[in-house]
Write a structure and sequence with these properties.
By secondary structure, the chain is α+β, with helices and mostly antiparallel strands. About 25% of the residues lie in helices and about 35% in strands. The chain has a five-stranded antiparallel beta sheet, covered by helices on one side. Strand 1 (about 5-10) and strand 2 form a beta hairpin.
């Protein structure tokens, strides 16, 4: 219903999703290679979540949750209905 892709990079895919427990709309970031990701990619992905968890600024989305489901790392962030950064800068 709500899950759909909103962005993609070299390491991960971001979806607009609804958090099952809270009902809140979130940005769900999942490691592209999933359970098959290299240790280096997993480390980089988790380092991003860790860094985001320490940031608190009005221009940075908030991290809500980080974890792993069936060997696939993910984290959820605040979802903002503002379009892409490229669109905002253009």
């Amino acid at each position: 219903e709500l899950l759909h892709e909103i962005g993609r990079g070299g390491l991960a895919v971001v979806y607009k999703a609804r958090h099952a427990a809270t009902g809140r709309v979130v940005a769900l970031k999942i490691l592209s290679a999933g359970a098959l990701a290299s240790d280096a990619d997993r480390t980089r992905f988790l380092a991003e979540a860790n860094a985001l968890s320490r940031l608190e600024h009005p221009n940075v989305v908030r991290l809500f949750e980080a974890g792993e489901v069936q060997g696939v790392p993910f984290f959820t962030m605040e979802y903002l209905e503002r379009g892409s950064l490229a669109h905002q800068l253009g």
